[in-house]
Amino acid sequence: MRQRRGLWANADFMRLWVAQAVSAFGSRITRTALPIIAVATLHESEGIVAFLAAISLAPAAVLSLFVGGLVDRSKKRRLLVIADVARAAVILSLTIAWAWGVLSIVHVCIVGAVVGAASALFQIADVAYLPAVVDRGQLAEGNAKLQTTEAFAEISGPASAGVLIAALGAPIAVVIDAASYVWSAVMLGRIRAVEPPAGPDTATVSMSTSMWQTTKDLKVGMRAVFGNALVRPVVVALIIWTASYGFFAALYTLFCLRTLGLSQGTFGLIIAMGGVGSIIGASLARRLASSIGVGPTIVLSSVIVSLSGLCIPLARGSHVMVIGLLVAQQLIGDGLSVVFNIHAITLRQTVLRREVLGRANAAITACITGVVPFMAIAAGLVASATSIRFAIWIGLVIPLSVPFVLWPLRKIKQLPSSDLHIESASETLRGS
Fold first, then answer.
1. Which residues neighbour 239 within 8 Å (Cβ) at sequence distance 6 or greater?
2. What is the mean pLDDT of residues 179-207?
3. CATH code for the structural domain at 2-189+219-430
4. Domain layout of the chain by residue ranges
5. pTM
6. How many angstroms separate the CA atoms of 281 and 150, rounded?
């Protein structure tokens, strides 16, 4: 009955969707505000701004080593609520410190680190939680709807952040983000879906946090991810992309505000264009996969995303030309990134056993975030020694290898619907 009526008739999914919608909007404010506080309010150098980016990402890599087994053995909804409350509290502390006149770059970095850690916990638990709320056949639809919400947040969040930061100041604007996390926690608390019990390999395991247990959990996650011929190419591609992201993201705000001389409002509007592209991508994802197949869609989207990134370091010349190239990258790159993410996440949720999803997600998070802080620091060093534009060139050339990594998936026309089909698809890839 649930599948026939669609997810809009699923009350629990709607609560999850509403929670995500509001918090996704608020999170864009903090994501935009933290580097702006460092650049415009505290007047920090390129190296410090790059360090802020690194310290915001590093906790995700560390935390993911420990929480995979915890997620698989715990009630995932409870972990989502805890992550929301933690983010709300630490973001609110930023505003309080500013009001007392004691705001410092150290405090900003601590906030970035805690938000990064809580967000990593939320993401790992969230991907593992969705299959408990929707039927297996509705995972692609559920991921598409959640990605669409992220896209709307990408439109309204950064643009609103630019306006709010200009009108109120970044330290006050982030209060809205804190409130959004409180709202998310309340809505998540109202979900009534009963999570299935942990599998035999997780239910009997002690909650010990010993190094032995951590190592065992990580091995289970790594084996699930890299032992699966369908998931492995996607994870390797994500590792490459996030390494590039660490290099590029540390400098993008500086590049736009200092090198290109854009205003904070214009900067927010340009980022918002990525949300427009994301909405288009979310609406096209399933249709594109139906037309050419899931595997070809994943490969094609990776080609376009990788090439679109080159628009950023090419941005020079007239004001119109600069904005045009940056907007093109946001529209095309973010749009096809959503197409890729919808099918990559759904693939993972479909082919991996539910009882190992938490550890698999943690292993993936550890892999894709482990190099990011080092890349962010390297970006700051390269930019200081050469120029911001040259450093961004380096970061955005890296992803050009991604389509070659994903090339074996071109033969997968549709997602496997049973274990037998999963084995058949894996054998196809091994023979390619």
1. 367, 368, 371
2. 71
3. 1.20.1250.20
4. 2-189+219-430
5. 0.63
6. 11
